[in-house]
Structure prediction request, 864 residues.
Amino acid sequence: MDGQSVQSGPRQVQVVFTTNFPDIELPEGKRQLLVPTDVRRYQLSQILNSESMLDTPAPIPFDFLVNGTFLRTTIDEYLTAHGLSSETTLSLQYVRSLIPPLYEASFEHDDWVSCVDVLSENSSARSWSSSGLVPGSERILSGSYDGLLRVWNKSGQVIATSSSAGAGGHTASIKSARYISSTKVASAGMDRTIRVWKYTESEDHFSGQLKPALELYGHKGYIHSIDVHGPSNLILSASQDDKIGIWTSAVSSAPEAPSSLLPSALTSKRRKLSTSTSTPQRGPLSLISAHTAPVQAVIFNPLDPTVAYSCGQDHTIRTFDLVTSRNVDTRTTSHPLFSIAALPGISTQLIAAGTSARHITLLDPRVSARTTQVMTLRGHTNLVSSIAPDPSSSYGLVSGSHDGTCRIWDLRSTRQGTKEEGGGVVGDAVYVIEREWTKGKKAVGGEGVKVFGVNWDVELGIVSAGEDKRVQINRGRGITEPGNA
Amino acid sequence: NIDPASLLPKLPRPEELKPFPTACSTLFRGHEGRVRSLALDPSGTWLASGGDDGTVRIWEASTGRQLWSSKVGDDEAVDVVRWRPGREAVILSAAAGDDIYLIVPPIQDPETEKKSQDVLDAGFGYATNATQTLTASGIRKEPVARWARPGSRLEEEGVLLKVSVRSTVKVISWHRRGDFFSTVSPTAQRSAVAIHTLSKHLTQIPFRRLPGIPQAVQFHPSRPLFFVATQRTIRSYDLQKQELVKIIQPGARWISSFDVHPGGDNLIVGSYDRRLLWHDLDLSARPYKTLRFHSKAIRAVKFHKGGFPLFADASDDGSLQIFHGKVVGDMMENATIVPVKVLKGHKVRSALGVMDVDWHPKEPWCASAGADGTCRMWM
Ligand SMILES: [Mg+2]
Prediction:
């Protein structure tokens, strides 16, 4: 021995247990405790559940956050990694452990499904509707490569199907569809049009009708995605023609349609047969040329509908002032961007963008924020085609990818990126949802399994659409904010 | 003692040369039998393919979805598909047997479709078919090619023009401005290489005699030069002065394909005898580098044209080899060539592997056509 005394037993550290959830809060006198430094999450969870602490009737698995990041090592390793001594008092914030997103159902289609939206008590379209929903009447809207929209109830029954090409429907595949209200729907896709539909249901709610109300012309390329804002009647579109469209769903205030882009301008015999019915045809309020390559996605800022964010194959994320149609900010990343979502974030607004390079980039779009990248989420093995925020947490999001999976991310679960990853803050998925029928089998080039659209609803869970001609539902409640379950 | 290897310049490691394609991102399945040719359109939106089943197909490049198909070959395979350069019109060319088809696929907006049709129809005013020249002996001379409508079935599908030559067309190569394209019919002897003028519906035979059987042709990316590869040599001609400029001897026994670097001063050549050769046209008639990476024939070689220092080859061994190939402006400095990735996945069928390769116009992504009936996109 070199004269230093060897401690009998493991080192100990003073911890303070805190939580944001009153139902699992410790009595004031029990919150401080001396614990061995070699314990991990599991032992800490056992300590919390014990008779002298929470005295839970059945054990609740807990996760622990130190400084906003999940504890994934022993306390000792954490202290060493952060250059802290064991004299420190460590604040451990505890939350219920994540619940795996269980598979619930699949709704089968005739063709690839490109997009899904949900109408439920908590969805934004519900808040833009004049009347409330009948209990249990949540609806799922799907758009398919067969050019049809379908409205489903929770049990997987089709309540309504949109008109076919000859009867005022889309003349090519649908790429994006959104609820504007409980009675109004917008859709867009490869026929370069946006169509607005009036939706009604029968008294018994077992059948309904999607009636064409408006056709919008102006784009010269596929429309990859749209977003809607009910109160202002505004629709945003992202197109292959490098442009962003601003449109109104109110027929009376919509400008005249550009005649050279109407179906009647088509010269090929084959397509002339499928001319439209008497649905009103209108043009854009504005078409913005800012991107220098196809625009893949555009969204309203959920906190301020006069602001829009877009991303595209020109590698940029752009901010627009919709009042002036001006591109007020541009952030250039290293890869083509295919999907976008706005996350309320921890203390600020964050943008998540899905890349062709198999990761998700998180950044702060505020003009004042000069640091470009906040975090990178890694794990997908193909293009990230869609992103949706967790409706009940500011830390969660779900992404869909051409690799055939949806992945759930918790922004508190991070690590330092490796040298190969280029360093920075990296997040790994907390859960991976496969297409249920594949049983985890991998497909080359995502053949048959690509996920094209994903949505996350408080009531229904994670709803995803794919090349497997299915809408798949996984229970998603309380995954990243267990206290709300 | 000095190790001679230590005196060689150190090549950068592949990881330092990112980005380049590393994995199959999309599979395109639908062809029956071999896919012989493929091409990404100038916007990167659409992938066109043609194969043994006599069909030309167009796919959504990002998803693998088939958008359009037309059977142009009755019994013949579609040997080649190539897009017309430029984004103001969307026109696809394809060849099956001794017919070249010019297509305005119904995948575009009405304005662009109209423009595209106008580009194809402009030449009808010239009526070159009607003016059959008389030879000295007074016998009617058959025109070297016939430009005509291909019939109502194909016209309704968007196949709007048919140019019939005298022998099977294996290669189509467009001039950057989109008014000229050249075709190669290796078995046609005197008329093996033809140059077609779209705006006049005119076909001309630029060379009366060629020293060997033509394999491939390319227009120079910026100057009025034209390259013709026979089995063993590549000749460059000045089209305006109508004279031979240079003879390049790659040392290959049978050239399958070649491509001109977008800068115009370097060539890559692929050969059935498994060699890939890099030529610096300023340096020598002999190759600057000979690369042997494949165990079977190389069928296609292609430079990236959108700003990345990348090139690729496609081989019957079922793989694609991706190279970093950086050309420096300085005449005294040689190009840096580093193999960075082998892309595997295509199955070998009847001793045939990867038949064609093309690059995305902007991104470091490539697409391949396989004898296994699939096309693949690599990102
Ligand atoms: Mg040089």
